Description:
Blueprint: H1 3-17, E1 39-41, H2 43-51, H3 55-64, E2 73-79, E3 82-87, H4 89-102, E4 116-120, H5 132-150, E5 154-161, H6 166-183, H7 198-211, H8 220-244, E6 251-254, H9 256-260, H10 263-273, E7 277-280, E8 283-286, E9 297-300, H11 309-321, E10 326-332, H12 338-348, E11 356-361, E12 364-368, E13 371-372, H13 385-392, H14 394-402, E14 410-413, H15 414-418, H16 425-442, H17 461-470, H18 473-483, H19 487-506, H20 514-538
Parallel strand pairs: 4-5, 4-10, 5-6, 10-11, 12-14
Antiparallel strand pairs: 1-3, 2-3, 7-8, 8-9, 12-13
The protein binds one RNA strand through helix 2, strand 9, helix 12, helix 16 and helix 19.
Amino acid sequence: MNINQYLLSIFQDSLKKINISSDIDIQFDIPRNKEHGDLSTNLAMKLSKELKRSPQDIAQNIVASLNYDKTYIDRIDIAGGFINIKFSQQYYIQQLTNIIAQKKNYGRSNKYSGKSVNVEYVSANPTGLLHLGHGRNAAIGDTLANLYDWTGWKVTREYYFNNAGNQMNNLTKSIYSRYMQILKDENFPFPEDGYHGEYVKTIAEELIKIHKSNLAEGSKNDLAIIKKFGEEWCFDKIKHTLSRMKIKQDVFYNEDSLYKDGKIDTLLNDLESKGLSYKKDGAVWLKFSQLGLENDRVIVKSTGEPTYRLPDIAYHKEKLLRGDDLVVDIFGADHIATIPDVLAGVRAIGLDNNRIKVIIHQFVTLMENGEQVKMSKRTGKSYTLDELLDDVGEDVVRFFLIMRGVNTHLEFDLSLAREQSDKNPVFYLQYAHARICSIFDKLAMQTIDSSKVDLSLLVEQNEINLIKQLILFPEILLSAMQKSEPHIVCEYLREVAAAFHIFYHDCRIIGTEEKLMNARLILSNATKVVLYNGLSILGVTSPQKM
RNA sequence: GCGCCGGUAGCUCAGCUGGAUAGAGCAUCAGCCUUCUAAGCUGAGGGCCACUGGUUCGAAUCCAGUCCGGCGUGCCA
Length: 546
């Protein structure tokens, strides 16, 4: 039974009975102060103005004609203008049984079943290694995809890449230069905007192992070999890093296929025939000014190469035509400018851009001993995601990268992350899980059959508080998904862990009277289920021991 | 200049579809282990919610303006 729906229906009945017809939205909130009950509504205060009566008066009227099931609702009373609702112990026990019954599926909902979503994230070109920014993108994208999955969506995880453009040529030239520097002449010129990272030297060294000096001439064919080698090398590393992050994407979409399949040409023709493009200074311009934007922009350069806008629009067209109900992009704040262009472009060719949802996340700054660690693309000095994973571990990385709202700048505190101690927030959650496992370990039990246990023995405030936390889980996942804010799950799990630690501290399990022990074991097991499921959504492991 | 994001405790951040006394972690201080993991628990101090005005019975939350910080504003992606 869904308690919110039930409450909604009895309140609507009550309003009908006392002849208040209003399309007012009835909302139930969890009061900050626990003494105010488990849920409260400000309905009476909202109606006050419309009805020109005092909130207290209206509230009394509503409550007097409320007809509710006393087995689940203990009482409903009035405080100021608020109507406060308190659930019965039996309600909590029934919910607890439900958690145990659903186990690994507890938290899943079917609210969005039948809908499908494509989530595109990471999408780094194979021109280098993943760094911290990609890490945040990856963690947010993957966690969101998990949240879509848990709320009923059919999910496709996608990675979009370009192995053909300027950037790739630049990498090729950079590798070639390092190759020549090692083999022939240490002063061999390095491309002006080349990739300075150490990894380029590594690629060159590995290239030499295989091809010796056979590529020294730098012919078109030689460069093609270098390009392919570089691309594969980078992709291997990227995929390896992602697998460490527990990320596996379903589709790797190559931008080049947009050209090969003629989708770019089709789009160009389409735009031209609609009179939305024109030639000027040897370039093709798109009339964004007719699409509600400020300025027209170049979509094909005078060199004949398209700018990023054209393939981006074609790619989104392609994704929309696949028929998913929702197409989600995860972008860093530096990509903000492309979004209006793509949306306008897609709308221009008659597609519904409301199906595109763009999540923008702000940057990550790496802090060490209270100082910012500077990164530089120019000198190649950077801290790669792989190095970070080596340094602090997979669980810490995944957790730290989503524990803040996507709109906030994320300060990644290396010193804190490295610390294997109580200061580190991930361990707080994992520790709660490990503690529960150790109880069952001690008793040499795997789990416990709830059907034979009298859960009505759970009457302590700390026990009820813990149950209250646990039953929020499905709603939390829905809310995190709807708001596209994975950090909501982090906050929630911290509260679950806190409620458990308090319970654990105050309520002994082993050594108490057997019936009570069994009831508490059920509660512990339910906590374990929530922690495990929640952490797995975040891509974090739940250790048995710590 | 314009656009997007942010400004809440010493630090890092929740809270932002308006509600009751503004929260958490870290840091500081004071307590709790002969019984299930002290990576835990209990308590204390710490706030002009950037500023000004407006809307409202009620504003950290909504609106307008101002100030500060980040990102963007390419025939780069």
